[in-house]
Amino acid sequence: MDKIEKGFIINSFHEAASLYADATKKLGFWKSEKYAFEKYLYQNDAILDIGCGTGRTTFALYKTGFQNITGIDLTLAMLNEAEKIAHEYNLDIPFILGDATNLPFKDASFDKAIFAFNGLMQIPQRQHRTLALKEINRILKPEGIFIFTTHDRDKNENYLNFWEQEEIIWCGGKQDERLYEFGDILTSGTFQKDTYLHIPTQLEVLDCLEEAGLTVIESFYRSELFDENEDVNDFSSDCRFWIVQKSGSAF
Q: Which GO annotations describe the biological process of this protein (predicted)?
């Protein structure tokens, strides 16, 4: 059985592109995103929206004054939908096809970067997620800020029994052969089936950030600070926000 690779991720989102486009028009910012973006992004910043998909955060940022923004995504079908929406709204936003583990930009090209909706954790294998973090560090200017979200394996008590059972499965070598490491799952969501996702612990994320040369300046669990509306909760499960910065620079 073949391991989960980039092609699997692309196909997963290709099939769901039109549904994500509908959500882009409907949802806009989460309350938690609005807080983080207003606190750490400045309107003259050059911003890279990684894993932009159909442009939910890209368009919301642009419409609130953050107009020096570029969207990049791995899936052409998602970008095609984003460009349709941009044309519909008459917005001039560049959308680029590209891979977070090999960003097509020069060093220190952006002031800030975001990777919304747990997108970083849809990159298979820890070494590749760490490579993406290193790439993000590379394209950030000095004192650059990166905002992203992940699930939190230790935080959500509703899934403690699930992870106990998963650990037994992995220790017995009976896990899905397509997966790489404990914390990997294949899940079906509102928009798509057989979606790959890695559910990390906080310690795992911290270790990857340290290896990539990024320092945490704020982190919070969404539901502890914000009561998101029903549409947002239907669209996305609870998650942890990470706001990090290039090491060696003070915010």
A: methylation
Distances (CA, A) of 89 to 20, 44, 60, 65, 73: 17, 21, 12, 15, 20
Task: Determine, yes or no, domain membership for 1.
Answer: no
CB 89 within 8 A of CB 67: no
Instruction: Decide: 56 and 85 in contact? Cβ < 8 Å.
Output: no
Which residue range is the domain that position 202 belongs to?
Answer: 6-246
Number of domains composing the chain = 1
Length of the chain in residues, anyone?
251
CATH number at residue 239: 3.40.50.150
pTM score, whole prediction:
0.95
* Model pLDDT for residues 8-34, shown as the tens digit of each residue: 999 999 989 999 999 999 998 999 999
Name the residue among 95, 87, 40, 47 with its Cα closest to residue 67: 47
Residue 233's Cβ-count burial label (10 Å; 0-12, 13-18, 19+) is middle
> Which of the 8 DSSP states describes residue 99?
B
